[in-house]
Design a protein that fits this description.
The structure is a single chain. It contains 24 helices and 3 strands. It is mainly alpha-helical and 624 residues long. The chain has a 3-stranded mixed sheet with strand order 1-3-2, covered by helices on one side. The longest helix is centred in the N-terminal third of the chain and has 30 residues. The radius of gyration is 25 Å and the shape is globular. It binds 2-acetamido-2-deoxy-beta-D-glucopyranose (11 copies). One 2-acetamido-2-deoxy-beta-D-glucopyranose binds next to loops.
Length: 624
Amino acid sequence: MSPSNKSFIPKMGFLFCCLLGHLIFGNVEADTIQTIQKDYFSWRMENEPEYGTYIGRYAFNDRVYSYNISMFEVRRNKTQEFLNRLNAISSNITSSERINFLILKDTFETYINGSKWAWYGALNPMNFLEGIQIFTSAVKASTKSRGDFENYIARLNAIPHQLEEVKERFREAIRLNRTYHNVSIAGVPAMIDQLLVDPLKSNFYSPFNNSLANAANIPETEKPGIRERGLQAVNMTIGAYRSVKDFIINEYIPKTRLQYGVNSLQNGLEYYQACLKWHLSFDMTPEEVHRVGEQEVERIHQEMKMTMKRLNHKGTVKEFFNSPVNNSNFYSNDSDKIITEYKKIVFDRINPKLPQFFKDIPNVPLEIRKMSYDGPGGGYSFATEEYPGVFSINLFRPLEKPFFEFMALSLHEANPGHHLQHSYAMLADLPDYRRHTPFSFYNIPVWFPFYSAYSEGWALYSEYLGVEMGLYKDDYELMGRYSAEILRACRLVVDTGLHYYNWDKQRAIDYMLNYTAYSFEAMENEVNRYITWPGQACAYKIGEIKMKDLRRKAETELGTRFDIRDFHSLILTNGAVPMSLLEMLVNEWIEEVKAGPIVSGGSLVTGSYKWQIFSLLFLFIILQ
Ligand SMILES: *[C@@H]1O[C@H](CO)[C@@H](O)[C@H](O)[C@H]1NC(C)=O
Ligand SMILES: *[C@@H]1O[C@H](CO)[C@@H](O)[C@H](O)[C@H]1NC(C)=O
Ligand SMILES: *[C@@H]1O[C@H](CO)[C@@H](O)[C@H](O)[C@H]1NC(C)=O
Ligand SMILES: *[C@@H]1O[C@H](CO)[C@@H](O)[C@H](O)[C@H]1NC(C)=O
Ligand SMILES: *[C@@H]1O[C@H](CO)[C@@H](O)[C@H](O)[C@H]1NC(C)=O
Ligand SMILES: *[C@@H]1O[C@H](CO)[C@@H](O)[C@H](O)[C@H]1NC(C)=O
Ligand SMILES: *[C@@H]1O[C@H](CO)[C@@H](O)[C@H](O)[C@H]1NC(C)=O
Ligand SMILES: *[C@@H]1O[C@H](CO)[C@@H](O)[C@H](O)[C@H]1NC(C)=O
Ligand SMILES: *[C@@H]1O[C@H](CO)[C@@H](O)[C@H](O)[C@H]1NC(C)=O
Ligand SMILES: *[C@@H]1O[C@H](CO)[C@@H](O)[C@H](O)[C@H]1NC(C)=O
Ligand SMILES: *[C@@H]1O[C@H](CO)[C@@H](O)[C@H](O)[C@H]1NC(C)=O
């Protein structure tokens, strides 16, 4: 059966169950963590219909996400309702449910606490990194049956109103003086321009061509009518995008804020701290983050200087990275050769060493490919039951990336970084809401957590682990590693610099250029990102430091009883968790190992792959 007509059936089914539950049986069935998790996930699917489509939940294919300002309160209240239900059963939680209980509680509380800041970043739903001008393919589901086409047309017809809601948010941001700085939005009109084409040529229209022509179960006589209504809907959608573009140029951009930092907003410092807390998943002040950043930058910079000295290089870091450009030992313009090199690194150099550091290694396939679009330097798309994980490499400018940077990137994106991390999470029997966590950044802290300090902290820790694993084969590869690491350390200094210490953009760029290997254009783009997403870029280095601290603590307390493989199992087999919870788990594990003769490592691997089939798209490409 095709996904046709599904839109209506589950909704009715849902209603029917509720009626039965409430009217016929009353509330005889006690609430459990399972019922709350299930209801919460169903609500998320209804609340974020495009995301539902993307992961193959088709019940709301005819709708779009609502940006209506009144939804802030509706969503907050709904989340509060879930939290109340959860709190009501808190005394009934079994030990096997405990971690899910704590994460669910953290999920609801994070959203509710963050809601206080709804009238801040969340009023600005489009920027040069995200928004409805980028995630356009998210509206499309498979179109095979009559019902699919009806749903798709209904969804297209809903977009103009959705864009009115976007404008309404922007207007509120203008009214309250809580707009972006121009750098966050200046690029958006040109992005919208890409969508303003002849409706017949539009990507929105493409299903009405081939898919419709090939739809065998729709009578030929009905197809022209569907096509015509599709064309009208696409035309209207394009018109609505044009109107948003005019609005941004004529009304929004003239009102963009003049200061770079969000501390310039009313109660802006407190807002920045809330953003930091959201991204780090534990408390740390901007001063602390800044200081840690400076210490790390200094430490790594010294390592680089010493390494360059051993290599007899007299110049600056930047000169070091620029000097070997024409040396074919270091660079290649041949994409296939580069991919082969990456394969050797991952499959021949890294993988054989994994068993010394990890146990029960999941056997989830990994592919290494060229990135199909000019995105970040490297990316990882999650494996599913159907598809392998994909480590993709940006080869649009191969001559900018020396071979000696490949090891650090492979450790980060592939193994033991994101791919291995994700493979362990696949084996853990996680509830739906933890397997499917839609990313969103502009509205932080008004969003459900996805714990990037955990996921990015691990990936950066993996780059470090390469040293212990003996994987950096020479000083050049070590320079590649330091180059990647110092970028993340600089982010701590610069993010807090911009949003707490009133740095301007030029100072931020100068700082990045002084310590990193990268170009002005790359660093300007980075700094614009930090200005747009306060606190986001701090998750990587802080998460890594926290993991190293937890490990050091376990090593100190356990001495010879410390087993690195068990420690890594503990970190990986629970999937993404808040750092505060990770700390609790490590502390408990230390006590367990101290107390008992069994050094079992708290491995919680259960069951086999329980992953839903879903298509691999950019939404899941993890940013570097
Ligand atoms: C949200 O909850 C508050 C407090 O219970 C209540 O006053 C308000 O009317 C609710 N709003 C909506 C939209 O349900
Ligand atoms: C706790 O669980 C028991 C057994 O399932 C049930 O009878 C009781 O109502 C539950 N209590 C709460 C507060 O949910
Ligand atoms: C949310 O705020 C409450 C009250 O300030 C606090 O007790 C709780 O720890 C916070 N939860 C999270 C996840 O930040
Ligand atoms: C948002 O919702 C409110 C209340 O339901 C409604 O009055 C308002 O017109 C809506 N705004 C838009 C842009 O649809
Ligand atoms: C926004 O800024 C303007 C100009 O500084 C000021 O007149 C106005 O009162 C501010 N509005 C709010 C809601 O703070
Ligand atoms: C749809 O078909 C028309 C007519 O053949 C063609 O001109 C147009 O380019 C096609 N559009 C897309 C998006 O493929
Ligand atoms: C699209 O809509 C515009 C008005 O916004 C209209 O002038 C034009 O004829 C429409 N084009 C098609 C193909 O329907
Ligand atoms: C915003 O930035 C763009 C591109 O840099 C520039 O052309 C424009 O003048 C700026 N507008 C404002 C209001 O700062
Ligand atoms: C590399 O070689 C090209 C031509 O072979 C030359 O134009 C360029 O300046 C050289 N670059 C460096 C950094 O030496
Ligand atoms: C690298 O390859 C691209 C595309 O194949 C080509 O346009 C470019 O000239 C090459 N550059 C060098 C320095 O060989
Ligand atoms: C650049 O780095 C050097 C070496 O650490 C340092 O002395 C100098 O203060 C830095 N300059 C800036 C602008 O950060």
